[in-house]
Design goal:
heterodimer, A: about 90 residues, mainly alpha, flat, B: about 80 residues, 3 helices
Chain lengths: ~90, ~80
């Protein structure tokens, strides 16, 4: 049961990364690419958390925490710049 | 499972780097460069180096994007 859930999560994360990179390649405007980067950030945080559970090393969760705090700042700065400049 | 994700992330780093070189707009190229740094940080975690990944996530993806934004703003204000 738990094994199946982990495999399903891994497959979903894999497809999410593939589609996010496709959106980055095909994106027509800058806003599309920024949204794709934001989505890939969330997907990668979930990938780090999944790998922390699979590997059994919970120090990896700290990386996910730091990443969740910092990556949101970069996307916020880009969005603010696109809207009206810093 | 880990090797498959490492291969996928390496391919994504390659695609992001190529896009950062080939894209037209400066903003889109900057976003693609930040994404390459993001994938590199996850790759470090999967290869077993969480401290390197934390540094890469904070400096490479967070700080360098902000510095690039500041530089773009200054240069466009001087050019126009």
């Amino acid at each position: 049961m738990a094994e199946g859930i982990l495999i399903a999560a891994a497959v979903l994360i894999f497809c999410g990364i593939v589609f996010g990179v496709l959106r980055l390649i095909l994106g027509r405007t800058v806003v599309d690419r920024v949204v794709a980067v934001d989505m890939l950030t969330v997907i990668s945080i979930s990938l780090i958390a999944l790998y922390a559970h699979v590997a059994g090393r919970f120090i990896y969760l700290d990386v996910a925490l730091v990443y969740g705090v910092l990556s949101f700042l970069a996307v916020l700065a880009v969005a603010r710049y696109l809207e009206r400049g810093i | 499972m880990r090797d498959l994700f490492v291969y996928l992330l390496c391919g994504s780093i390659l695609v992001s780097g190529i896009l950062a070189v080939r894209l037209d707009g400066v903003m889109a190229a900057m976003v693609s460069g930040g994404l390459a740094s993001l994938f590199a940080a996850i790759c470090y975690v999967l290869l077993g180096a969480p401290d390197v990944a934390m540094t890469e996530a904070s400096i490479g993806s967070g700080l360098s994007t902000l510095i690039f934004l500041y530089a773009i703003r200054r240069t466009t204000a001087a050019g126009e």
